Every structure is written in C-alpha cells, then in structure tokens.
C-alpha cells in the first residue's frame, strides 16, 4: 500500500475536528506527499522524512513531523506496517522572536487600502481574522460584538465564546 492510499484511509479514521483535519491534509499534501506519497508505507525511512523536514522552516517542520507521526502511528495500530520512520526524528527548535505590535496611532495612520475598516475593526476589537470574517450586523447589538464562531465553524471552547465592547469600524 502506498502512503497516499493509506493517508486517504487514515483521514477517515482520525477522530479530529474539521479544522485540524484540514491542517493535517494541507501539511501532508504540501510537505510530505512529494517525497513519500508514492512510496510503500513499509519502505519509507527516516532519512527520506528528515530530508523533507530539513527543507522547511522550523515551525512548519514541527507541524509536518506531527502529521507524519500521526500517519505512521495509525499505520502501526491498524497493522498496515511495523515500520515507523518517525521514531527519533526531531526538528530544529522554533525560534522565538520578539513580536512587534503596532500602537493604535500607528494602525490608524497607515493606509490599508480597501481593508481600512476591516484592519481597524480587528485592531480595536482583538479578533482573529477567521472570527471577523463571519460576523454579521446581527452579531453586533447592545453595544457589544458577540463572538461564537469562526470561518471554521463553532468556537472550539466555551472560553472562545465571548462578548467584546463595540468600538466601531464594522462595515
């Protein structure tokens, strides 16, 4: 069985949220499939995976390795293979850089083109882009923005459901 054939099956077996599945599929198709997709599950070795991971930025490599670990862990559980080339693989540490945040005056002074109101809305309310894209006028009432979903569906946890004082710029 090729890795591609196994992956098509494994996506249906994993008990994960739709957003997580989307991310797994993205990392597999972009970063793993070109190297191992047509290989037999039994023939993938750690050197092939390591070469694929070394070509990626550290954070992308970390996510890609986690997807590979899931694929081969499930293959072992379902007796597809006894081979797990991910054992012992590591990625480079993720480099933490100090983040530069714009002040409100800096945000307000910049011209964001067609996105002026959207950027100002995000900056003044602290929303994620995926939360703001699904807001409607009905979500703004009683002086608050009511957040209960994102582009990917309902909020993942109860603490993600919240109300934020409305500061303007919604259009």
Structure, explained:
It is a single chain. With 171 residues, the protein is mainly α. The protein folds into 2 domains: 3-77, DNA polymerase, domain 1, CATH 1.10.150; 104-165, no CATH class. It is built from 7 helices and 5 strands. A hairpin with a 2-residue loop joins β1 (140-141) and β2 (144-147). It is elongated.
Q: Indicate the mean pLDDT.
A: 90
The number of helical runs is 7
| Secondary structure: helix percent | 40-55%
What's the CATH architecture name of the largest domain?
Answer: Orthogonal Bundle
Contiguous low-pLDDT stretches (5 residues minimum) are none
Radius of gyration: 21 Å
The first-level CATH class of the largest domain is given as: Mainly Alpha
The secondary-structure class comes to: mainly alpha
Arrangement of strands in the largest sheet:
1-2-5
Question: What is the H/E order?
Answer: HHHHHHHEEEEE
**CA-CA gap between termini:** 52 Å
Write down the oligomeric state.
Answer: single chain
Shape: elongated
Number of domains: 2
